[in-house]
Amino acid sequence: MKRLLAFLLIVIIASVQSAMAAEQPIRFGPFDSGWYPDDTYAVYLSGAHKASPTVDMNMGVFILAAVQEVDKVPIYAHLMLSTADIEVEGVGRTSGAGDMQFVLMPRILFWGSGHLNLGVGVEAPTGSYNKNSYLNIGANRWAFSPRLAVAQGVGRFYFELWGGYDFYTDNKDYLYYTAKTDLEKDGDAFAELHISFKVEDDGNSIITLSLGGIWGGEESAETFGAAHKVRDKMADYAAKATLKTDITNTFSIFISYTYDLYVENGEKGYTGAVKLAKLF
Predict the structure, then answer these.
(1) I need a labelling partner for 124 at 20 to 30 A (CA). Which of 38, 84, 137, 200 fits?
(2) The pLDDT of residue 4 is above 60
(3) Three-state secondary structure along 13-56?
(4) What is the pTM assigned to this prediction?
(5) Among candidates 57, 106, 63, 104, which has minimal Cα distance to 85?
(6) pLDDT, tens digit, for every residue of 204-257?
(7) 28 versus 176: which is more confidently predicted?
């Protein structure tokens, strides 16, 4: 029984750590494919609260984004920094910085009201990590995510389709029960669709419905010469509603709510977020 309880605890902790890492059923927001004029910079500040039956998490995110033309090819890029405070029932509480993320996505094809971006996302192990603790904000490993985004405008509607795959390096300082070992994580695939609608012709208010999913990500730890499964392959499907309102021509506010529709080998939860965006 003790081993069973300990295993369930490790599964919950692994799910918490992954919440700040690459794997999330919906990781992008409306217009994150870089639908901005060329030579534009943007700064995002957001706060979010994520909750499930045993986990309570508050997050803060800073993103610096840009669309710049290089050799006549518009390139979308962003740098993301984050912080979080997490409390897990029966485990404890911790806070600190999340892993830094960098995304580079050249717009390789574009046409009248649409475009196609192909690029990669990288997460660096810069977040807070205590190798003697079960509960951490940082994942202590690299993540690489080749990704594809297709966007198309049709009248008042705007469609964005994302897809990609996450590759992970090993966490070399993982605490499995009382032993320090390597945590290996299989890759996972993700896909999501955003459908945005301009409430008014000027586009000052936009409503977006998003659907997303992620599959894979089995984790195992090597101890005593054998591999022990820490978490089975997961599947997570979620829906997200977002309201974007322009305060001025260059300043916008996003209010969103995300709810897990189905979670395999994890807990269903919800996330409420407010994001401020400033264009330069």
Answers:
(1) 38
(2) no
(3) HHHHHHHCCCCCCCCCCCCCCCCCCCCEEEEEEEEEEEECCCEE
(4) 0.86
(5) 57
(6) 899 999 999 999 999 998 777 777 888 888 899 999 999 999 999 899 999 999
(7) 176
